[in-house]
Amino acid sequence: MAETDLTIRTIRSISEIAPELWDACANPQNPTGALQPKQQPTQDLDALRFAERHNPFLSHAFLHALEVSRSAVPRQGWAPLHLLVEDAQGNLLACAPAYLKSHSMGEYVFDHAWADAFERAGGDYYPKLQVCVPFTPATGRRLLVADTPRAEDARTLLIAGLAAVRAQTKASSTHVTFPDQADYEALGAAGWLQRSGKQFHFLNRGYADFDAFLDALASRKRKNIRKERDQALSAGIDVHMLTGTEITEEHWDAFFDFYIDTGSRKWGTPYLTRAFFSDVGRSMADRILLVMAKREGRWIAGAINFIGDDALYGRNWGCLEEHPFLHFELCYYRAIDFALTSGMLRVEAGAQGEHKLARGYEPVETFSAHEFADVRLAAAVKGFIVRERTHVEAEIEVYGEHVPFKKG
User: Fold this and answer.
1) Can 7-199+365-400 and 201-363 be said to share one CATH topology?
2) String of DSSP letters for 314-374
3) pLDDT tens digits for range 140-150
């Protein structure tokens, strides 16, 4: 398949590869996962957006929890089919988290219209090959290449391998969602279609603390945030910031109730099982920040974040009682405060959410890359994403003009 001594193969469970081998590719700057020292403040936009000494979602522990908890398994439409690139001695040089999918749920880069159009034309859109972290719209590396002298050869073979696996499984297409810019450009150079999206991230432009961040805002926005924070806790609500061994099964029981309530109202069927939270709580507790609200001795709301070395990743939120601005307090303001205290460069608070703009989160471009077996489908999608990119760029520009910071 390639004119080198490197080979590529697939595995049907992350448990088939040793954690230390996977993590050496997934997080080569920090494969042990130990929390690293604070970053130095920077005004470099690329560093703020893409710095990634350790991404918890790419770790063996996180992906393993998704599988053993029955959250991302074939029965749920997520059949693991991870790719491995090895040298002649069997050393792992690169890998990619991949899934053969029978639907398009839980991805946050929407291709339902492509599927509908192709199937109306007589094609079979599913199965498709998805390279991603399931249920996790967070930017990160997707072509997980170890830091070795063979890195570029391994990356080239990994990209070629994705197309080969797509053909072998008779999948219609391959989709790499939320890659970082380097992977996005490598896939584009290999002829993949490149798609743009947007999210709202908090970027730490050298703020010493939350008050320093507020001082950078326009006066009216600063007053609004202070008012929202006061009102969020005005009903006698206490907020607990929990990580590591502070998080117990009692907290996970309460949080899962919040998650189920919110997920059922928004999407119909929540993706993550109760077992998932216990599993990540055991295997990567130091990488979790659980923000929990209590009123009159009862847990009423919570938000879960995962801790990278350079970014805090907000994931899920839920509540059993509705209180004005409590969502903003737990999900956005507490996340900013924690990130600044920890010296992180950004907060990624998940997909969508124009309301984040007024709370200090800035519009940023996100990426995906796509490859199709059917040339007619590829041509149609190419035309769509070219037009879509124009709208995304215009939206980011408009949102950028309305960030809440002081002018100049």
Assistant:
1) yes
2) EEEEEESS--TTHHHIIIIIHHHHHHHHHT-SEEE--S--GGGGGGT-EEEEEEEEEEESS
3) 999 999 999 99
